[in-house]
Amino acid sequence: MNSLQLVWKNLSQQKGNTFLSILLTAFGIAILTVLYVSSDSIEKQLDNNSKDIDLVIGAKGSPLQLILSSLYHVDNPTGNIPLTEALEIANNPLIELAVPISLGDNYKGHRIIGTDSSYLELYGLTIREGKIWNKSFQAIVGSETASKHQLKIGDEIHGAHGLSAEGHVHDDHPFVVVGILEKSNSIVDNLILCNLESVWDVHGIHHEEHDHEEHADHAHDHEHDHGSQQTDEHHGHNHSDSVHNHETESHDHDEHTDHDHSHESATKDTLATTNENHEGHAHEEEVVSREEAIAGRNDVFIKSIGQDMVKDQGLEITALLVRYRSPAAISVIPKLVNQTTNMQAASPAIETTRLFSLIGVGIDSLEILAYVIMFIAGLSIFISLYNALKQRKYDLAIMRSMGASKNKLFTLVIVEGLVITLIGGILGLLLGHLALYFITQQTSQSADFIEVFNILPKEWILILFAILVGLIASVIPAFKAYNTNISTILNDK
Amino acid sequence: MDVLSTHELVFQYPNSTPMRFQNLHMEQLQHTLLLGDSGKGKTTLLNLLAGFSKPSSGTVFLNGQDLYKLSGSALDSYRAKHIGFIFQEAHLLRNFTILENIKLAQSLANNKVDVPAIHELLAMLEMDEKANSYPNEISRGQLQRAAIARAIINKPALLIADEPTAALDDSNTQRVLDLLFAIANSYQSTLLIATHDKRIKDHFSHTYQL
User: Fold this and answer.
1) ipTM of the predicted structure?
2) Which first-to-last residue range defines the signal peptide (chain B) (predicted)?
3) Strand B83-86 relative to strand B158-162: parallel, antiparallel, unpaired?
4) Global pTM value
């Protein structure tokens, strides 16, 4: 009969106390596990989503909101910015890459991002299957989006207006899935990408050179739920100009029939074209051949949007994601944007730090709570072992009389404490990961980035921490066991 | 050669006068009676002989080993192997079955746990059917036999019994003595019984009066 069998025998005789101690330990460790894994995942996610982006330019408002909406896709945008103004900034020689994004719709909670191929370069994305779009209403989907909704090449998806899954569905503008992205461990895994024109088209924003102004007073064909245009009291600013200004940009696509524009005035650098037919209206719209684009350029944006149409039509985008060419830009570009334009420049690094300091308060509070629970668990183990010793001193004296050394009794009690906390610790890890699994299941795609089944090195330290609690809690009872006096106890019986 | 011998043993409880014990000599397989009224120090002497309490002075030799020259854990180990102790009460571990109590005794003596040998011993004590019973499930007499089995399983050189016949009637006293003699002989142990019960005096060739 070895020590572990003896320990198990003793623990099983005090099922209630043992169970309570194990449960308390497990709860403490579970909370710490959830905190560590989720904050680690958040940190990684924040890093992954902003590591190559030095600046985000968007509509004035909360800079944090701009970062959250444009990089992490968890908030409403602050509004839209004129494409022409964005282009002027993008032309600055201190900027290496400027990627436009336009938000407005989602597919079952996954945001549909209008952008150009430079977005793939910015995030270092590769296409696992299929190819990038070569015309409007073609989309490439993130790996998580694809797997969650079993999307494959050729599938049609219908975007819903707004940024929540409950928005009005654009039944008449389905997107065709033409590509699926490789997993990137960034928010892009949960996004759907298409070209800017698709976003404009789906909302009836006329992006050709002429009738945009003429149809300024046209009623919009779509009945959108413009949640983002409502005053957002929480953020203290008005989104009335956000996302898409349909009062001025609405139009009916059928009116394109007389369009026959050619983009001869497009810059000679324009890399490719896309032909887009709108019911008999054949207009060739110059956009970029994206595969070629990814292969080797970094000034896609300027060239990808025909500058001729940009200037004339007052097109808008939601934000411009900027990568600097040199560190000198840090002191120049934000000031340039904030002081000379109606746009704002927000630094992901600064806002992420600010965000983390905000989240950090909550995480710290929960962490303190978890440590309090662990302390209570330790106290419970101590009380349990100490009280048990009062009842067991007789048994311990018998064991001493049978030849058990003082060290043996000391070790037995210590091991009892360790076994309780080890079981509690492992159970806590399982509970923690189970809780994370349910969190990710219940929160749509917003928590998908949490690596539920990834055991962090820090978690093994948690187990060691739990064991340490067990050790500390059992030291005093163990010393009492060590000092068991055979003759006094047995002869008094 | 003496299995057990003591020399000038003295023990003093706190705030009391020292207790001095006569020298004992016990030969191998000898059955010895330690007779004395209550309060004469029988249990104290047994504690000294078993290594439970350290004497103020004097020596205890068991199989030629001075017990109190051994360090704490070495003494514990030596006791487990060479001394079997039957307390006045059975003192079995309550959460262990009879079989587990005896297995633990083997284990603590660093002997291989020999379940067939345990069953053989329990059969000899007419206790085999109670092997898997817990102490609170058996009678007082069975408890005492279980305690005897636990004390003898490691074939100790010295088997000590403290008041084994207290509160027993004559027939049961005779039965317990017969059992102890038989078991001690079977397992080649020297038997020392401490009691105040003068009825059993005639069963022993060697008696020490306290």
Assistant:
1) 0.89
2) none
3) parallel
4) 0.65
